[in-house]
Amino acid sequence: MKKPKRRMKKFKRRSSTPFHVMLVPTLGCPSNCSYCWSSEEGSPIMSIETIEEVVKWIKNFRDDPVTFTFHGGEPLLAGADFYRKALPLLAEGLSHLKPSFALQTNLWKMTPEIAQILAEYDIPIGSSIDGPKELNDRQRGVGYFEKTMRGYEIARANGLTVRFICTFTSYSVKFKEDIFNFFLKNGLTLKLHPALPSIRSETPEKWALDPKEYGELLIYLLDKYLENIGKIEVMNIDHLCRCVFTHRGSVCTFVDCMDGVFAVGPDGSIYPCYRFVGMPEYVMGNVYDHPSQDDLARSDAWKLMHQFKEYVDRECGECPYINFCRGGCPYNAIAPTGGEIKGVDPHCTAYKMIFGEITDRLNRELSESPGMGMAMPPLQSEPDAGAKPGIMSLMFKRS
Ligand code: SF4
Ligand code: SF4
Residue 189 in contact with residue 233, Cβ under 8 Å? Predict the structure, then answer.
């Protein structure tokens, strides 16, 4: 198949203050995963006029390179025509901000036509699969696996890169070895996501992954990753090790996301993150009004996010991991309590377990390696080639 001409070379990301705008063209989704509560039947589709207003809003909003992620619901429900018009509007209208793009989809609606349009802009695709077919379909619904894999083949045939998020639930965590081996055997990059308690179900904890089990899962994956170094990429473990090594968070969960991340819903409403889209109490403004940062800062949702930041400074002040954890995800902390700040991210237990494990192992490796003290130095000398791979080997591999 003829590969599409790529237009995005000149839109490479610069390193600067992160500025991430998630565009949610619809909250609708053709799938019906058991543990997902974030889709809405009959949700409208974002119009091209709204994209034009996004361009006008962002043009003078701030002066940092911007990443747009199309999210949902299921963003491909917006159709080929939407992306054919939206992508050049954003790329050319905001060329001074060097926009880059990403898209998160279950791939069911992927067609060669859409794939060609996305490939022109070199758009990395994130999708979702929870492991082998039987296990996946048990929690995501019968037929999900096949439909996603069909879309995956179309995406790959058109030169798109696809990475999968694997949601671990209270059920699937019992099969963690099968799941890891599935990703390893199929040469797929693994990014995991713990199922959260539902905010719309009468049995909110049914699928949710207990924080201690999540911590144990992360430690298990750390071991499996080190055993299979060079054969698979486990993105979360890379991020967590990098956090400890550099003392800085590198994904939104482990930074103060409140000033750098925004989401736009189908009607142009602006929220702090895609996870809040569709919850009216978290609307900060609307793209049709072209609000400034100061305008958004007057909204209750903005103030709540910043109250969370101050809360973390107080509550996590004694935690050795505060610099690169920052209390975890504010959505996880705030949404289940109806907008009241009663604690940090409930996954704190898991974060302490994995950060502690990585810190201990790293200190041990450093103390056993000749000429190195207990502090965390920059990567200078490669670990002994005969030694069992450890955190330092991983950091060298990924640096
Ligand atoms: S609310 Fe959570 S998921 Fe959303 S940007 Fe912040 S850390 Fe990330
Ligand atoms: S590990 Fe827990 S206590 Fe420490 S910074 Fe993260 S959320 Fe706060």
Answer: yes
Is the bond leading into 343 cis (omega within 30 degrees of zero)? no
pTM, entire model: 0.88
Q: What is the pLDDT of residues 208-243, one digit of tens each?
A: 999 999 999 999 999 999 999 999 999 999 999 999
Q: What string of DSSP letters covers 320-388?
A: TTHHHHTTS-HHHHHGGGTT---SS-TTHHHHHHHHHHHHHHHHHHHHHSTT--SS---S-SPPPTTSP
d(CA 19, CA 82): 23
Q: How many CB atoms lie under 10 A from the CB of residue 271?
A: 24
Q: Which ligand is nearest to the CA of 350?
A: 2
As a whole number of angstroms, the distance between CA 10 and CA 120 comes to 12
Among 194, 199, 234, 231, CA closest to 350: 194
Mutate to test the pocket of ligand 1, among 275, 304, 307 (most ligand atoms within 8 A of CB): 275
Give the pairing type, strands 269-271 and 261-264. antiparallel
Cα of 263 to ligand 2 centre, how many Å? 25
